[in-house]
């Protein structure tokens, strides 16, 4: 019983105006032949509370991975997608109980969890930090980070882009007091960047690829050597208690899909590009910027999250004690063979 539709979300005021894109119908089967076997699903008493799983996505990233790899076939429960433009509204929907699980980066997770998000990390993936970029317009006179002094930079507050701004400034002898930070969501930030209202834009992956491929922006500095770039699927405490089997199946399918995509970039990019309305060239460029691969929720992942949280605590973004280990649920283990495939593919 596989169905893909957008859920009705309660407490919409918490979603920061983020639209929920309806995801209906399946794309051409010819594009979706799986090269990895789908994980087995074992129903248990823990999922007796329901047979549907509502998941939050960003720019159709997870949905397109599952579709392209064939992992959306034969799911024995209803899978509902809510699509958002960035991590913050995904985690706000999770906080509201409007979704069971959500996909977001480590920086956004640290910020949300420190503020009481009633959820735990159940799945992780690592990517190249080079996919996080501080952009300036192609014709900008800004050539170095030092040139940003006195300038206006936009980023999503609490995001990995915000982290990059602070880390890049610090590495070059500057601080946030030397610039003006304008906190905007990606759509508004893109408009401000294009119009020249802001001088630089700290953003990630697809947005970076769009500007670079179109030759409208260039990367002044990226995240290599400045930050980790991990992403997580987290689930509410209620969903973990009531829908464990569904969640285990879902994270296994996402992991298998990620591995498939690493070896089938063009095929995956066609589907993702169609969903987010970008050219195949932009979709391929975006995928190759990050190349996420699944990893275990282990000591290394927990340590990385603690490092991110400590960084934010140091600049006053996080103002409460934060212990990363308390927010990770390691019981949703991935198959050892799948992790070995991931290590080889990465």
TrEMBL record:
<keyword id="KW-0732">Signal</keyword>
<dbReference type="InterPro" id="IPR010067">
    <property type="entry name" value="ABC_SsuA_sub-bd"/>
</dbReference>
<feature type="signal peptide">
    <location>
        <begin position="1"/>
        <end position="42"/>
    </location>
</feature>
<dbReference type="InterPro" id="IPR006311">
    <property type="entry name" value="TAT_signal"/>
</dbReference>
<dbReference type="Pfam" id="PF09084">
    <property type="entry name" value="NMT1"/>
</dbReference>
<feature type="domain" description="Solute-binding protein family 3/N-terminal">
    <location>
        <begin position="52"/>
        <end position="254"/>
    </location>
</feature>
<protein>
    <submittedName>
        <fullName>Aliphatic sulfonate ABC transporter substrate-binding protein</fullName>
    </submittedName>
</protein>
<keyword id="KW-0813">Transport</keyword>
<comment type="similarity">
    <text>Belongs to the bacterial solute-binding protein SsuA/TauA family.</text>
</comment>
<dbReference type="InterPro" id="IPR001638">
    <property type="entry name" value="Solute-binding_3/MltF_N"/>
</dbReference>
<dbReference type="InterPro" id="IPR015168">
    <property type="entry name" value="SsuA/THI5"/>
</dbReference>
């Amino acid at each position: 019983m596989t169905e893909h539709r957008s859920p009705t979300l309660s407490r919409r005021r918490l979603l920061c105006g983020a639209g929920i894109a309806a995801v209906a119908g399946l794309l051409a089967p010819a594009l979706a032949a799986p090269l990895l076997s789908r994980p087995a699903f074992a129903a248990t008493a823990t999922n007796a509370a329901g047979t549907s799983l509502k998941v939050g996505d960003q720019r159709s990233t997870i949905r397109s991975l599952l579709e392209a790899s064939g992992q959306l076939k034969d799911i024995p429960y209803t899978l509902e997608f809510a699509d958002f433009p960035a991590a913050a509204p995904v985690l706000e929907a999770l906080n509201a109980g409007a979704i069971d699980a959500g996909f977001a980066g480590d920086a956004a997770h640290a910020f949300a969890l420190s503020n009481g998000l009633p959820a735990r990390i159940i799945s992780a993936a690592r990517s190249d930090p080079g996919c996080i970029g501080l952009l300036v317009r192609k014709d900008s006179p800004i050539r170095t980070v030092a040139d940003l002094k006195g300038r206006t930079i936009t980023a999503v507050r609490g995001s990995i882009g915000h982290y990059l701004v602070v880390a890049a400034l610090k590495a070059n002898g500057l601080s946030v007091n030397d610039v003006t930070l304008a906190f905007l969501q990606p759509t508004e930030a893109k408009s401000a960047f294009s119009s020249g209202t802001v001088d630089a834009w700290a953003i990630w992956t697809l947005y970076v690829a769009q500007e670079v491929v179109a030759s409208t922006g260039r990367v002044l500095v990226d995240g290599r050597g400045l930050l980790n770039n991990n992403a997580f699927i987290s689930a509410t405490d209620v969903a973990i208690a009531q829908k464990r089997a569904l969640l285990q199946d879902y994270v296994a399918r996402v992991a298998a899909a990620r591995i498939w995509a690493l070896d089938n970039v063009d095929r995956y990019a066609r589907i993702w590009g169609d969903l987010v309305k970008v050219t195949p060239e932009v979709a391929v460029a975006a995928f190759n910027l990050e190349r996420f691969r699944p990893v275990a929720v282990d000591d290394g992942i927990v340590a990385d999250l603690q490092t991110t949280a400590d960084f934010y605590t140091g600049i006053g973004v996080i103002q409460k004690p934060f212990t990363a280990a308390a927010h990770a649920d390691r019981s949703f283990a991935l198959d050892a063979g799948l992790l070995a495939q991931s290590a080889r593919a990465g």
